[in-house]
UniProtKB/TrEMBL annotation:
Pfam families, per database record: Amino_oxidase
Alphabetical list of InterPro entries matching this protein: Amino_oxidase, Carotenoid/retinoid_OxRdtase, FAD/NAD-bd_sf
Annotated source species: Natrinema salsiterrestre
Full protein name: Phytoene desaturase family protein
Record-level GO BP terms: carotenoid biosynthetic process
E.C. code: 1.-.-.-
Length: 498
């Protein structure tokens, strides 16, 4: 079989999409080098380690285990070759701000009983909802996620239309969920995963009800060592395949075309036949390419809907925080106002919905003895004013809210505290407007409406990561790397693996 043995590739950025692409291209025979702006590999999946505490700074949910299994199987390996998994029970805990508390567990019958407590018939409705979610997941993943359909005609094909029959392609998540559940709290439970897609119930397509199959049926897992251990596993596998990595080497300009690229860096150019950018798409086009080499103009990026940014507190705390589960959500009884303050009238939320992650509930190695490691994430609008004074004020808002709604008083027990927000996302990850995730999954930014893997203006330049298809999230970025590599192989007349 033909290979990329004569090709050299530089991958800009070591997020999940870049690391994935590097593995696939190295496996195809290319000489692959990954250069990373920051001091560690992983992109947004960075780690913070200080005073015996360890935090995943970005992704912290291990969902869609089948995607990870398929990824490693492409290289005749398994996830367990690199890290071990624990099935979380509960999957997560929800505190509603009117005093209700709900645990979602691996026991579906127990969850159905919880739903019945809120609404008669809701248990059976949950079964029907999950059956539809499973159908959407299985058809959607195989025929629309793992296959990169980049043109409208790809969706007009009769076989594609047949596969798409019955999928919830139109309408919003809000309308879809309302068709099954009347109680607002049940609707919130079915919609919380929209946080991972960077959208709201009203602007995210109903197709993403497939995330409930991910949540309820496939389960929520924890890789020992956190998502950082997954990054280590992918990096180690890449090294076994021949990938070379350099940190602290930002790209400042992309020059050239196929067979003659120079990627400028502060320590000199990196020369390669092909370039894959895993840096944020808008940053790559607007900062690394001259105007005539960009696939999209400034108006395009100005007109996009960006996923939320976040206000994050990383806290090392004396003692236990037993009220909180490994994954805990705190939700206002009415959360529309919070989404409005992200997408419609951007401002710091006055009654926030937020997420607490306490990995020390599962992993003894992430905190010193007698202490807990946790972080708090509040989704906020990208582009908000972000000053030390605002952070200090909002930190107090969040700590007071946690105490009032979960019974967990943290303020007098904090021995380590770090903050991260809009300006940090912009400076550390070059993310436009300080978005934490990239382009939101609105209807006009889903599937073929996301930016392509191939540059339309520069032969030999490709893109990977959450701004491309299939989209946001660690599993989707793994698949993005596969799709980018397939584009490279196709352009070189090489049949991808079966």
């Amino acid at each position: 079989m033909q290979s990329l043995a004569d090709e050299s590739v530089v991958v800009i950025g070591s997020g999940i999409g870049g690391l994935s692409t590097a593995c696939y291209l190295a496996d195809a025979g290319a000489d692959v080098r990954v250069i990373e702006k920051n001091e560690q590999l992983g992109g947004r999946a960075s780690r913070l380690e200080k005073d015996g505490f360890k935090f995943d700074m970005g992704p912290s949910w291990y969902l869609m285990p089948d995607v990870f299994e398929r990824f490693f199987a492409d290289f005749d390996r398994t996830p367990s070759d690199y890290y071990e998994l624990s099935h979380l029970d509960p999957h997560y805990r929800i505190f509603f701000k009117d005093g209700d508390q709900v645990d979602i567990t691996p026991d579906l019958e127990r969850t159905k009983a919880v739903f019945e407590e809120y609404e008669a018939g809701a248990g059976d409705a949950l079964e029907r909802y999950l059956a539809k979610s499973k159908e959407n997941y299985e058809v959607g993943m195989e025929h629309f996620v793992y296959e990169d359909r980049t043109k409208l005609r790809d969706y007009l094909d009769l076989d594609v239309a047949r596969q798409a029959r019955g999928l919830s392609l139109l309408g919003s998540m809000q309308g879809h969920v309302e068709g099954y559940f009347d109680h607002p709290k049940l609707q919130q439970i079915m919609q919380y995963t929209l946080v991972f897609l960077g959208g709201s119930p009203t602007n995210t397509p109903a197709l993403y009800n497939l995330m409930s199959h991910v949540d309820f049926n496939l389960g929520v897992w924890y890789p020992d060592g956190g998502i950082g251990a997954v990054i280590d596993g992918i990096v180690d596998m890449g090294a076994e395949l021949g990938v070379e990595y350099e940190t602290d080497r930002p790209a400042t300009e992309i020059k050239g075309r196929t067979g003659g690229f120079e990627v400028e860096t502060p320590t000199g150019p990196v020369r390669a036949d092909l370039v894959v950018s895993n840096a944020d798409y808008a940053h790559t086009e607007q900062e690394l390419l001259t105007p005539e080499r960009r696939g999209h103009d400034d108006d395009y990026w100005e007109d996009r809907t960006y996923a939320p940014s976040a206000f994050l507190l990383y806290l090392g705390v004396e003692g236990d925080v037993d009220e909180l589960a490994h994954h805990t959500l705190v939700l206002p009884t009415e959360w529309e106002d919070h989404f409005d303050q992200i997408f419609e009238d951007p401002q710091w939320p006055d009654d926030p919905a937020y997420y607490c992650c306490v990995p020390s509930e599962t992993d003894d190695d992430v905190a010193p003895d007698g202490h807990s490691a946790l972080f708090v994430l509040v989704p906020i609008a990208p582009g908000l004013e972000d000053t030390p004074e605002i952070r200090e004020q909002y930190r107090d808002v969040v700590l007071d809210d946690i105490a009032a709604n979960t019974g967990t008083e943290l303020r007098d027990r904090i021995v380590l505290e770090e903050r991260f927000s809009v300006d940090d996302f912009a400076s550390r990850y070059n993310s436009r407007e300080g978005t934490a995730l990239g382009l939101a999954h609105t209807l006009r930014q889903t599937a073929l409406f996301r930016p392509p893997h191939r540059s339309s203006e520069v032969d030999g330049l490709y893109f990977a990561g959450g701004d491309t298809t299939p989209g946001i999230g660690v599993p989707m970025c793994l698949i993005s790397g596969d799709l980018t590599a397939e584009a490279v192989l196709e352009d070189h007349g090489i049949e991808p693996r079966p």
